[in-house]
Amino acid sequence: MKHSIQSKRYKVVHVTTELSKYCIGGIGTVLDSLYENRNQDELFVFVHPDGMQKNFYEFDDDVIVMSISEFLDIHNPLPFEADTVYVHNYNLFEMHRFDKSTKLIYVIHSLIPVEMTFVNTYGDREEKNFWKAVNIADELVVVSNSEKSTLEKIMGNVGYSPKKITVIYNGVSQQEIIKKDYNMKNGVIGYIGRLDYRKGVFQSVKEWKDIEDFKLILACGGVGSFPPYYSNKLSNTIESYAKNKVFPIGLVSNERKKDFFRKVDALIVPSLYEPFGMTVVEGIVNGLPILATRYGGVKEILGKDYPLYFDPCKKGDLKRVIALYKSMSSIEIRKLVERNIERVSLFSEEIMISKYRGET
């Protein structure tokens, strides 16, 4: 519901660096869902990098657009007041800029696991900004119980006192559950998501040299748009291990995304680390069987007894699970998909929106 910005106190404000077409991955999907279903008493603030002009960004007139410096400048009064402010990026914390009645919540969409330090992965500045956000926020939100356990462990290791940590699962619209014909296979397995070392894409491409009968389509938000290192590494890995078997098609969205889900037989989620697993839920809602790792939030979606788990770091395990999937009858695949559809009712858009509004 579109509404104009008013000089008033809002019930909920979301502050984000990803919204609408200026996003990629699960964070953008979540923020777009919250934005498209906003109420009159909800406001969205889009914060862009310094050096970019505001008029570069195209939004409806009910989104406040600010640069990072503008948002963090304590001498620059913010153009809104709120009961609850959700900040979706750890680089947007400098101090608690709101009155005592405002609850400031840091939403941690992706938490680096304990064995991967911020220093080695993102640099010392990013590590400091993360802990600054944790320290300043009144409460923390994570996207799975797995992330909550990891965060509690990290905070304990570095001596931070416990804070209230709430789990709000990401949600996907389930108004239309797609029914597929499992009697026909196109010989295509698909991956959709970031081109990122944590997503297990490179390991899967290497393993694909031993896969017969199935092509792998990579709808990567990264080919041609992420740092050249990842794109070049992917091209070289395909050339060395799986030429004519693996095909990157770049980022897909909207109708292209729907077309992608229609054309693949199954979805592969080979993540080495997965805070939630938005693509798992999207694949299920689109009627696809899922070949997945059991890391992070994925196990909370698919359950402990799911038969098509594999270990992307164990040589031959991907080949094993694809052979198992290939051996399944259309009836067995349909039952598996129906079982998954029952489970994803917990991860609906409606439940997620209600929790962010503080209604449940």
Automatic annotation (TrEMBL):
- Top EC class of this enzyme: transferase
Domain of life according to the entry: Bacteria
Keyword Transferase set for record: yes
Keyword list (alphabetical) reads: Glycosyltransferase, Transferase
Report the transmembrane regions from the record: none
SUPFAM superfamilies with a match to the protein in the record? UDP-Glycosyltransferase/glycogen phosphorylase
Its EC number(s)? 2.4.-.-
What InterPro entries is this protein classified in?
A: Glyco_trans_1, Glyco_trans_4-like_N
MF terms (GO), sorted A to Z = glycosyltransferase activity
- Domain Glycosyltransferase subfamily 4-like N-terminal residue range list: 81-173
| UniProt entry tagged with the keyword Transferase | yes
Record-linked Pfam families: Glyco_transf_4, Glycos_transf_1
Q: Which residues form the Glycosyl transferase family domain?
A: 179-328
- Protein name as annotated: Glycosyltransferase family 4 protein
